[in-house]
Specification:
The complex is a heterodimer of chains A (292) and B (307). With 292 residues, chain A is mostly helical. Chain A has 2 domains: 16-70; 76-290, MetI-like fold. Chain A is built from 14 helices and no strands. Chain A has helices spanning 16-51, 72-80, 83-115, 120-129, 135-148, 155-159, 166-177, 181-189, 194-205, 207-223, 226-231, 240-251, 256-276, 278-290. Chain B is an all-alpha fold. In chain B, helix 4 (81-114) runs antiparallel to helix 11 (227-242) and helix 5 (119-127) runs antiparallel to helix 8 (172-197). The radius of gyration of chain B is 26 Å and the shape is globular. In chain B, 43% of the residues are buried. The mean pLDDT of chain B is 87. Classes of the chains: A mainly alpha (292), B mainly alpha (307). At the A-B interface, helix 1, helix 3, helix 4, helix 5 and helix 8 of A face helix 1, helix 2, helix 4, helix 5 and helix 6 of B.
């Protein structure tokens, strides 16, 4: 529960509890406002910097409102680099990864929780045990395997490792165990086949965890950097993070206006999605938090 | 559906109904449904893990077939000065990141517990850096850490001549930790806030009646009841922190010198810079063992009555 802790009972309003409570609230709101400004400052600096002239970039004091906004900073990177393509690559890879995560995690999670085939617990344990394996640990062997299979510099090579993850299966399994068995029994008595039960009855019930997992999988793929860095060296296959780093390497300490414009462009879609799907983002965070 | 449910309840059967054929059909589809995820995870997680273990005992440079060298790679991983430096730098980073961030996130959670109006807005703002791509955040701060840029402007009252945020070997790691505090405190705050809001008000009222002050309530009510969330937060923080790569790759590239060459970057450079795949694999196995040990230790430490 949010809000005041102890009630001051029947005491008059000038009682010390009440007064201290007000003081506390004033302090909290003051600190919260200061922190808000502090957290927003880097964004604000990037937005203003993206419109600044190069010679005004690091002037003292900071030129917060550029007198002549340099809108060209936003168009120049696109003229010299194929950022449209990189955004399309990232979107395609993240969408594929999201859809496959949703499909495979749900199928497996439901199957482990509700169909309880012999060995279901072993399968679950095997999948869970990979939750602890980070990218860095399988980086070298994965590269060697993918090189053998001819997957270096292919979309398949980027996408494959992210097709499904232990976390998604775990999440869907936890959710599916809460579905009452009666639904399934009833449908079976009525003669529904198992796939029919899954697609017609179970799937529609899973909207909340599906949307949380969808956001989780999409952002995970969109933000991924180390694996694409290893498996791709052709510009045509660059994702946004790779392209940005390549751009930084070319421009190091030269075109800060354009660099900040790219930061703004790369952040806007993410913020828009975040504002639209806040609940899913937060739910994803809190679901993973509940399962210590 | 409703009809079926009634019959089922009346005859007192709640699970596993019907003749054997039902059950076998269920098993069949169970295997079919679980197969894709299981095969993918076997092929792309468990097999590479085992293959990595094998490679860690080999000298392997991609071009020629591997050649077994016993424990040489592990000896190298645990004694080479550059690796020791990577361990040192990584732990320094973890220390500078996790302790301040956890305290900060806990403070925010306790603060936002007290207020109703505007809490959602403040939480949104503080959480927002968490959604941007790590590489983009690194890019942003590579500008903010420039001489006379925002960070210098903020620190001017204390350091009028500017700070060499990324070029002073003693300051580069704290700078990186600072970026991460900005980026990820919101996430930890949300988890701790969910825990704090879940503590029943009666406990505080009871403590109040017993004459416990604010400080005593924090130590004797809030923190003990937050144990599960604290354990989770610390485990996740360690797991994420040990894997740090993007941040320093963008900000410093591991420099100045080797001052920010964290473990993950050392693995990357050894494997893909020098093509010493066997050594890189051994080093990543060490990373894996570290991760496992810390996780188990932390879960042990925080397993209390409330867990």
């Amino acid at each position: 529960m949010r809000g005041p802790s102890a009630d001051s009972g029947g005491l008059p309003f000038w009682s010390s509890t009440r007064f201290r409570r007000t003081l506390l609230l004033v302090a909290i709101y003051t600190i919260a406002c200061i922190l808000t400004v502090a957290f927003v400052l880097p964004y604000a600096y990037a937005v203003s910097g993206s419109l600044r002239k190069e010679i005004d970039q690091f002037r003292v004091p900071i030129q917060w409102i550029p007198p002549e906004p340099q809108w060209a900073n936003y168009t120049k990177p696109f003229a010299t680099h194929n950022f449209a393509r990189y955004f399309a690559n990232s979107a395609f890879i993240a969408l594929t990864s999201m859809l496959s995560n949703l499909a495979f995690s749900t199928l497996a999670g439901y199957s482990i929780a509700k169909l309880r085939f012999p060995g279901a617990n072993i399968v679950f344990f095997l999948i869970l045990s990979t939750m602890m394996i980070p990218t860095q640990v399988t980086l070298v062997p994965m590269y060697i395997i993918f090189q053998r299979l001819g997957l270096v510099n292919t979309y398949g090579g980027i996408i494959l490792p992210g097709l499904v993850g232990a976390f998604g299966v775990f999440l869907m399994r936890q959710f599916c165990t809460t579905i009452p068995e009666d639904y399934l029994d009833a449908a079976r008595i009525d003669g529904a086949s198992e796939p029919h039960i899954f697609f017609a009855i179970i799937f529609p019930m899973l909207r909340a965890p599906l949307s949380a997992l969808g956001v989780f999988a999409f952002t995970g793929s969109w933000n991924n950097f180390l694996w694409p860095l290893v498996i791709v060296n052709q510009k045509a296959l660059y994702t946004v993070p790779l392209a940005l780093v390549a751009y930084l390497d070319e421009q190091r300490a030269q075109e800060h206006g354009q660099l900040q414009a790219l930061v703004v462009i790369a952040s806007i879609p993410v913020f828009v999605v975040f504002l639209l799907l806040q609940k899913e983002f937060v739910r994803g965070a809190s679901i993973s938090g509940l399962k210590g | 559906m409703g009809r079926g449910a009634t019959i089922m309840t009346r005859i007192g059967v709640h699970r596993r109904p019907g003749p054997l054929s039902y059950r076998y059909q269920r098993y069949f589809w169970g295997y079919v449904f679980a197969a894709p995820a299981l095969l993918i995870i076997l092929g792309l997680q468990i097999y590479p893990m085992l293959r990595g273990l094998q490679i860690s005992f080999q000298k392997y440079d991609v071009f020629t077939p591997g050649e077994y060298v016993g424990l040489a790679n592990y000896r190298w991983a645990l004694t080479h000065p550059r690796n020791l430096n990577a361990f040192r730098v990584t732990f320094q980073y973890l220390f500078l990141l996790i302790i301040p961030r956890t305290i900060f996130a806990l403070g925010l959670a306790l603060m936002f517990r007290e207020i109703v109006y505007g809490a959602g807005f403040f939480e949104l703002v503080i959480y927002s850096p968490n959604v941007i791509t790590m590489v983009v955040a690194g890019l942003l701060f590579s500008t903010l850490f420039q001489p006379n840029s925002l960070m210098d402007a903020i620190m001017r009252p204390i350091a009028p001549n500017g700070v060499r945020w990324l070029t002073d070997p003693r300051i580069a790691i704290p700078s990186g930790a600072g970026v991460m505090v900005w980026k990820s405190t919101g996430y930890y705050m949300l988890i701790l806030l969910a825990g704090v809001l879940g503590i029943p008000q009666e406990y505080y009222d009871a403590a109040h009646v017993d004459g416990a002050g604010a400080w005593s309530r924090l130590w004797n009510v809030t923190l003990p009841l937050l144990r599960p969330q604290m354990a989770f937060v610390l485990v996740i923080a360690l797991i994420n922190g040990l894997q740090t790569f993007d941040l320093f790759f963008v900000l410093t590239g591991g420099g100045p010198g080797d001052a920010t060459r964290v473990l993950a970057m050392q693995i990357y450079r050894v494997g893909f810079g020098y093509l010493e795949m066997g050594r890189a694999a051994a080093l990543s196995m060490v990373l894996f063992v570290l991760l496992s040990v810390f996780t188990i230790l932390q879960l042990r430490m925080f397993r209390g009555e409330s867990y």
